[in-house]
Design goal:
This protein is of the alpha/beta class. It has a domain of about 170 residues: Rossmann fold, CATH 3.40.50.300. It is about 45% helix and about 25% strand. It is built from twelve helices and ten strands. It binds adenosine-5'-diphosphate and magnesium ion (MG). The site of magnesium ion has 4 residues, from helix 1. Magnesium ion binds next to helix 1.
């Protein structure tokens, strides 16, 4: 089990209010769990508890998080830093804000590789180029020498995904990672996540306010409302036999826009098959 959340509660210690009240899931290597719910339902705080970056005055008030079998509540700051990147990577909305605008993107990713993998500058550069190819940036050499403002939102998110997987983490958390992108690019990025999962065994936590997004890549879905898990189960069950009214609402919202388009799960099996032939 690479990641385990057991009845996690998160409290705002300033107000005493529990803003997340009971999130549990087990993530096996290569599996994908989705967390869906309206804005403010507690998705990001849940992710931040896993990454050890809860905002000041927020804490896990009960339950626990285990990464790679290890309860994280005892980790020191230094241990957290080591864990982030090497065991768990993360990408968020608005990739541009995570990059330095005055440094070429290749150099920024190479620096992550150099620090996390403790390799020479030259090896880090080569690895960054490999990573750019693996996130399907069309011309890695060209992109390497570009500044953030020269890249589209979709390309920037690919660069951030490359940085997040630079140290070969076992888990990637994508929190609203495609929300700011237009629909076509969003689909490409989700397809990339599914591809990385199929080819490297990376486990995914995909977080979105949009049920179609998590349904596209996840085997299991957790529906959060106002900090509570209202429904949880295999994606097909959630989509086709939703039990909770709130889940039905999330689905109906989409039927108006043509959810079917997104509901064809990415064919992970065929990608694994492809790999075996290489
Ligand atoms: N830094 C913060 N300070 C105060 N309240 C916060 C902070 N971050 C989140 N919250 C509150 O916690 C609740 C859950 O937020 P969040 O996890 O960001 O929701 P989601 O990601 O599902 O939109 C919300 O009511 C939000 O207002
Ligand atoms: Mg959020």
């Amino acid at each position: 089990m690479v990641l385990q959340l057991v009845d996690v509660h998160i409290r705002n210690d300033a107000t005493g209010q529990e803003v997340v009240r009971g999130v549990s899931f087990d993530l096996r290597p290569g599996a994908a769990v989705g967390i869906v719910g309206e804005s403010g339902s507690g998705k990001t705080l849940t992710c931040r508890s896993v990454l050890g970056i809860l905002p000041e005055l927020f804490s896990v008030s009960s339950g626990h998080v285990a990464v790679d079998g290890r309860d994280v509540s005892s980790l020191s700051g230094k241990e957290w830093t080591a864990l982030r990147g090497s065991v768990i990577g993360a990408v968020f909305q608005d990739p541009a804000s995570y990059l330095n605008p005055s440094i070429k993107v290749g150099a920024q990713v190479a620096e992550v590789v150099r620090v996390k993998k403790r390799v020479s500058r030259r090896a880090a550069r080569d690895r960054a180029l490999e990573l750019f190819a693996s996130v399907r940036l069309r011309d890695p050499e060209l992109v390497y020498h570009q500044y953030p403002h020269e890249l589209s939102g979709g390309m920037l998110q690919r660069v951030l995904i490359a940085a997040a997987v630079a140290a070969d983490p076992q888990v990637l958390i994508a929190d609203e990672a495609t929300t700011a992108l237009d629909v076509t690019v969003q689909a490409e990025i989700l397809d990339l996540l599914a591809h990385l999962r199929a080819t490297t065994g990376l486990a995914l936590v995909v977080v979105s306010h949009d049920l179609a997004v998590v349904a596209q890549v996840c085997d299991e879905v957790i529906v959060l409302r106002d900090g509570e898990t209202v429904e949880q189960g295999p994606t097909d069950e959630i989509l086709f036999e939703p039990r909770h009214e709130y889940t039905k609402l999330l689905i109906e919202e989409h039927l108006q826009y043509g959810l079917e388009r997104f509901l064809t799960p990415v064919d992970v099996a065929s990608e694994v098959g492809e790999l075996e032939h290489v």
